[in-house]
TrEMBL record:
CDD domains: HP_PGM_like (cd07067). This is 2,3-bisphosphoglycerate-dependent phosphoglycerate mutase. Its EC number is 5.4.2.11. Substrate binds at residues 8-15, 21-22, 60, 87-90, 98, 114-115, 183-184. It is an enzyme of class 5 (isomerase). The record marks H182 as: Transition state stabilizer. Catalyzes the interconversion of 2-phosphoglycerate and 3-phosphoglycerate. NCBIfam families: pgm_1 (TIGR01258), PRK14115.1 (NF010713). The keyword Isomerase applies. Coiled coil: none annotated. Belongs to the phosphoglycerate mutase family. BPG-dependent PGAM subfamily. SUPFAM superfamilies: Phosphoglycerate mutase-like (SSF53254).
Length: 230
């Protein structure tokens, strides 16, 4: 049986400041680094070994992965960085304070933007400095691929091709796989793995730095073993 472990990045500076983040490349805090090291320690204590790891192209996930690997003495394993594992793009909300935005637009509207499956936050205008289209890490991608905003459904649509093309084949070959990514790119994956309905995914929350473990059988059927806490 192959294992899949999902880890959301440790606390980021904008988690701490309660700001919408999305594709903005914010780093983790000291607490976030501790959370990541703790995750690695727990995985090591459980005797899990990884053959390969996947992460996004955002430093909060990449650095979390480093800390997890370091704590497991597994810095040597192959790592694939894939933009399709990035956080859900937060559009024009990127960088705004969540509480201030709720005071302006109401809690209900903000909850819809944050957790509905198919309502997108307002889009960035393409001349906005927060647009990632000219960022070299996305060179070669089309305007359609570099979003100006996304709902979770859009995130599912870009995460699943990465799953089918690069991640699932590793599990099918019996490899243990670690993914360090983001609250919503991981919710997209969990929705797919557990076949969660569009209106039920709203209730799924993934905490920072707590490994979520799945077993895959020979038919590639996942069994959720749960979050690995102390
Ligand atoms: O700001 C973000 O990008 C995400 C994850 O921190 O926030 P939310 O909880 O609203 O999905």
């Amino acid at each position: 049986m192959a294992k899949l472990v999902l880890v959301r990045h440790g606390e980021s500076q904008w988690n701490l400041e309660n700001r919408f983040t999305g594709w903005i490349d914010v780093d983790i805090t000291e607490k976030g680094a501790d959370e990541a090291r703790d995750a690695g320690r727990r995985l090591k204590e459980a005797g899990i070994h990884f053959d390969i790891a996947f992460t996004s192209v955002l430093k909060r996930a990449i650095r979390t992965l480093w800390h997890v690997q370091d704590a497991m003495d597994a810095l040597w394993i192959p790592v694939i960085k894939d933009w399709r594992l990035n956080e859900r793009h937060y559009g024009a909300l990127s960088g705004l304070n969540k509480k201030e935005t709720a005071a302006l637009h109401g809690d209900e509207q903000v909850h819809i933007w944050r957790r509905s499956y198919d309502v997108r936050p307002p889009a960035l205008s393409p001349d906005d400095e927060r647009d990632s289209i000219n960022d070299p890490r996305y060179a070669g991608l089309t305007r359609e691929q570099v979003p100006l905003t996304e709902c979770l459904q859009d995130t599912v649509a870009r995460v699943l091709p990465a799953w089918y093309e690069t991640i699932a084949p590793q599990l099918a070959a019996g490899k243990n796989v670690l993914i360090a990514a983001h609250g919503n790119s991981l919710r997209a994956l969990v929705k797919h793995l557990e076949n969660i309905a569009d209106d039920a995914i709203v209730a799924v929350e993934i905490p920072n730095g707590v490994p979520l473990v799945y077993d895959f059988d020979a038919e590639m059927k996942p069994t959720r073993l749960g979050f690995m806490k102390d």
